[in-house]
Every structure is written in structure tokens, then in C-alpha cells.
Amino acid sequence: MSPSRSRQRQKEPSREHRSLVVPRCSSRSLRVVRTTAMIAAVPSGRHPIRGSALTRLLYYEDSSLREFEGTVQEVADRDGAIWVELDRTAFYPGGGGQPPDRGRLGDVPVTDVREEEGRLWHRIEGKLEARTPIRGALDWRRRFDHMQQHTGQHILSQAFIEVASAETRSFHLGEEEVSIDVAHPGPDPELLRRAEERANEIVWEDRPVRIHEVSRAEVGRFPLRKLPAVEGMVRVVEVEGFDWSACGGTHVSRSGQVGIITLLSTEKYKGGTRVAFVCGGRALRRQRERARLLRELALEFTAGEADLPKAVARLKEESLRMDRRLKTLLRSSRPRGASPSS
């Protein structure tokens, strides 16, 4: 049985139980997973409802947590891979377009994190023993990058609604770039510029990013971009006064931490438009690469960066002129009566 994904959260000691429904943040379809969260210290042994001890999800308590201490609860060997369950974890299992975290448990690499029937499993490249304390450390650069991209996506999606009434249908966070599919047949450059500028205004205003856990009955007080068709508790991510989204992912604490949102390209996709973009550190690295390429081209053409379009146009015209001259020479060199292919 292979691990699959879901969400849950545990808070400070109390002996109550409640149903917690955390939507997966996908704009195409708002999928949810119902779990039972115990608002108490995690007991050892069998849980009376689900048959297993619950893992305390530290990434919902503090998404900026880089290291933590926990205890290995169980070790499982599945399909040649070793998976461990902890009593508490800061490793996010992925979902709704956001990939899972990586990092280390002690000296052992964690290469994947998944959820199976409310239990969180960490795939490790090594060995750990059950009932032993362990110190976990996230690959923070990867996690913070995911938080920048995911929060940036929330902001950009709302910007497209403001400037073009174009809702986001789906979201994908890739290794190199991020994309959203918006319900617009073909935004022109001016509309794209306006959406990008509006999104960056929100970033640079450094607005707080807040997390609300509310009942289904209370969801109506938030102007969500898409209403979740669920019962129980719902997790709402708010970029103060701008966007409210039902989402189970990890996010930065202020919009300013997104840094910048840069649109890369667009293409038609399933009657709408796929918009590729990057945020924060990815945008900085893209800018560095583009600057390097421009410098190299400027040196090759012995021209300033601003003059590169003219230099390329001259090269193209010269190439066409030489091509016409070559064809004329070839025609004049053929013997009389010979076919062009001979």
C-alpha cells in the first residue's frame, strides 16, 4: 500500500476532537481530504478513531520552521523503499500543485513525503529505528522557493480577476517555472502588463498573509475566488484585503517575501491561456541569466544592449542579401540546358 496525500493539523493540549477539512489548493477543482484532528498532545499507540497515533503537523503551526525534534513512530519497507512515520513533522507532503519537501532526518536524506489515510510518511535513503528521537531539517531553500511561488500564484490569480475577470482554472509548480491556466482566450500584451503590475503592487505593499481555519458555515464571510463544496473546518489563506483562497499549502507570512512576480510567456490551452511566471529567487536567477546572455551578445555584435535589435536586423538583412547573391551565382554557373537539380 503506497502513501497518498492529505492534510490535518494538531493544536495545543485539550481532549477534544474535531473534523478538519483542508482543501487542496487547485484552481481546476477544489479537492478536499477529511481527517480527524486531535487538539491534544499526541498519545503513543493506537488512536481510538483511526487506529494510529496522529502526527503533529508543524508546517501548519509555523511554515517558517526549518528544524524540529521528533520521535520515529514506525518504520515500513514498501516496494524496496523505506518510509518512516514521526510523532511530529515540519515536512510538507505536497498537494494542490505544490511539491513535497525534502531534507534530512539526522544524517539520513528525506527524498519524498506522502500522506496515507491520515498518516504522514517520509521516504528516507538510509535506516532509522522506531521509538528513537530524531532531529529533522528541511531543505529550506527548496521550501522557501515553494512558498514564494505558491503565494505569488495566489496574488497573480487574483490580479487576473481584477484586470480581466479571468479566473484561474489550474496551477502547476514546476522545477524551473510556474504556470496557471486562466479563463481568457488570449490576453494581449497590455492586459498582461496590467496584471503583472497589479500583482507586484500587492507584493511591494508587504501585506500580511494570514491563515484562517473556519467552519463551513463561516466560509461565506470570505470572498473566496472559488467556494469549497465541503463540510467541517476549512483552511483559508488571506493576502490582507486582496485575496482569500481555500488552500492547504505553505505560504510566506507577508507578501513582500514573494519579492517580485515576473511573467515569462503565454500559450493557448484548452480554450483559455496558460501563463508561465516565476517569483522571488527564481525571478532573480532568470534576470541574471538574461543579463549574461545580453552581455555576451553585445560583445559578439560589438554593440550596446539597446542596439542589439538593430544589429540583429542588419545581420538578418545581410544573410538574405548573401542568399540572393548565391542563388544568382549558381544559376549563372549552370551549363545551358541543364535542369536546376542536375
Automatic annotation (TrEMBL):
UniProt-recorded Gene Ontology molecular function terms: alanine-tRNA ligase activity; aminoacyl-tRNA deacylase activity; ATP binding; metal ion binding; nucleic acid binding
One term under GO cellular component: cytoplasm
Pfam families hit by this protein: tRNA_SAD
Sequence segments annotated as region (Disordered): 1-21
Primary subcellular site in the record, as a coarse category: cytoplasm
SMART domains assigned: tRNA_SAD
Highest taxon in the source lineage: Bacteria
Co-factor requirement: Zn(2+)
Domain Alanyl-transfer RNA synthetases family profile: 1-289
Location within or outside the cell: Cytoplasm
UniProt entry keywords in alphabetical sequence: Metal-binding, Zinc
An individual GO BP term: alanyl-tRNA aminoacylation
Residue stretches of biased makeup (Basic and acidic residues): 9-19
Protein name: Alanyl-tRNA editing protein
Native source organism of the sequence: Eiseniibacteriota bacterium
Lineage: Bacteria, Candidatus Eiseniibacteriota
